[in-house]
Amino acid sequence: MKKLNYFDYAATAPMREEALTSYVEAARKFYGNTQSLHDVGSAAQRVLQKCKHIWANHLQVSPDSVFFTGSATEGNQLAIRSLVKGKQGTILVSPLEHASILTVVHELKSEGFAIEWLPLTERGVVDLQKTNDMLSDEVILVVCQWVNSETGILQPIEEILSLVKRKSIPLHCDAVQGFGKCTLTGWQQDVASFVISGHKFGGPKGCGVCLINPDFHWSSVYPGTTHQFGFRAGTVDIPSIVATTEAAFISLKEQHDLYANVQKFHMRVVNALPETVEYVGQGTTKSPFIVGLLGFGVDGQHTMLEANRHGISISTGSACKVGHGEAMSTLSALGYEEDVARQFVRISFGYLTTEREVENLIKWIRSYKVERDLR
Q1: Fold topology of 17-249
Q2: What is the CATH number of domain 5-12+255-374?
Q3: Which of 28, 299, 344, 358 places its Cα 20 to 30 Å from the Cα of 128?
Q4: What is the pLDDT of residues 238-283, one digit of tens each?
Q5: CA distances from 76 to 53, 135, 188 (A)
């Protein structure tokens, strides 16, 4: 495969070498089922408990609140369903959520739950005053992401948490695009649930990390499940958990330097954009790891394919929906018309992004825009 300038880290990141090494070692040594009572199973169980303690230390929470899933998608869906099972009422949801959350929310609506959308300001941030006005006794859960996967817009989780705590309403937070990149300030200890995806920061695909706060009641989605206290059915994947834990350790150790480096790349790209190309979310507090663009005058799929033809990997948004699905819903919530939203493309940086790649990207954007304007 030809060498590509990779700018799709929001979709997935290459596995870190240390994570790959850890995966292979764990697969060789700790192949037992954690539920088995013999020594091989006990060895696997000890590794699982060690990883839970490491994550608890990272997040400053109890080890008993840490669970591992097959993905962040599964983690989001299990967490939300676990928190509302056996209840009736209203769920408040940010309209900018990832497809995994929107899917389960629409399912819950068909099952009789009332779904209401959190209001946004003109800048795409949750309107705190209007949200506060919506927090009635009927609200059983609030769902709000940390970092938007299309635009990088950061939501004021601490402020939202402050509002819901007054009413003792649980808050679920999808932190997939934030963990290992943006700094956690302690609010993760007070949310009801919190989900991370290993492959976004150099771990393997197939491993999500879910925090369920023991201060909030939850019920097993699948009664009779014995693994992980009934939170998730299925044999625990020790190699993936070990590799994800190793990738997290390295990511957090390098986070400060990476953030500063990526911030420079981000501003370099934004400042070099042609005047007629729009930087989506400008004026908001954002993660520098994501740059959403509009204004090339053609469908985003075309722009993405043209970039790929020139050895540059970008995307039209989240890879979890076909085509423009999630980008369209996000941009629609931000007030963009459909024909404009279809032009959307996303650039995202990661731990292997280089200055040379960024320069190649800028050069291509400028030449592509000139080419489009001449047509």
Answers
A1: Aspartate Aminotransferase; domain 2 (3.40.640)
A2: 3.90.1150.10
A3: 344
A4: 999 999 999 999 999 999 999 999 999 999 999 999 999 999 988 8
A5: 21, 22, 15
